[in-house]
Amino acid sequence: MKLPLFCFLLSAMWLCGCAQHRVVRKVENRTPYHLPLKSVGAMFTSLPPAVQNTIRAEAGASEILDIVKDTSSGRVVYKVYFRNYSLLPPLYVVPDGSVLNPDLTVAIAAPNDTAGLVRDITGKGVSLADLPLHVRKVLLDRAASTEISHLNMEIWGDSVIYLISLKEGTHHPKLFITADGTVLKETQE
Predict the structure, then answer these.
(1) Dihedral of the alpha carbons of 12, 13, 18, 21, in degrees to the nearest 10
(2) pTM of the model
């Protein structure tokens, strides 16, 4: 009885001795580039024109550190952070160009300059002020004398698409426009 038990223990110790702990080495990517692929300039140009104008009017050529689009308050607020924080505290701007106080009350109201393009926008999330400049130009070309009944933004794959329903008599055409102003399709309903 002692010999089989001894052989069993000896073989178990031999098997345990053969087991090795594998060391997994992490492959290091040696490159001098570690910053994200976004720039302040790209963020600035993606802002609605009214917001860009407000930032230029309030801060001039001051260096912008970051721009954050915040929707936690139930509406879109752009928070602009400047390099010289002691001289220029964060600037809070809504899409129509109004400047807000830190408690999100209106400090300086934006001028009303929509020129009658949109008299009624229903739907949530996107307003005329949120539209990129190229999309606004397409709307001016195609719907200058028509009311917009619905305005929505959707993401299709990697593209942002603006779905715009117009009021034209008995027809309600829809425009599908990319952020660069390309009209994908126009349907009649």
Answers:
(1) 100
(2) 0.44
